[in-house]
Fold this sequence. Notes:
5-stranded antiparallel beta sheet, alpha+beta, 41% helix
Amino acid sequence: MQLLDLAFMPGDEIEVPKEIREFMLEGAEETILGQKNGARKQYRYGNLHIREYNDKFLVHTDRVDPRKDPIGHLVHDAPEVLIGLACAIFGGSHIAQKLTKTKLHKPTLANQMIYSILAGYVGYNATRKIKNYLE
């Protein structure tokens, strides 16, 4: 049975231990697109996302190939990234405005950057936890 013969839904991940089978699909391209999650390398083959670790491969299918439709991929496969960015942009500036009105802080670029990073991090992690729970 070949890897492509396996029927699994987008988001499902299978583990292929290297001790059982060292494989790489012909035509799979090494990529920087996607979260490495500690992998040594990652590859794309159509909608397949393959992460290579020292002892195994983790493989899942994405709904949308990010090389062909990056926005569609973010919307359907990685919404936590979009929500994190939105939280960083809108949440960070909102927090900075609120604190400036209370005169607790002077509005500095450094303050706004810190609030944006924190708001983005919270939005990203919360969305990722919800996504993992729903899957």
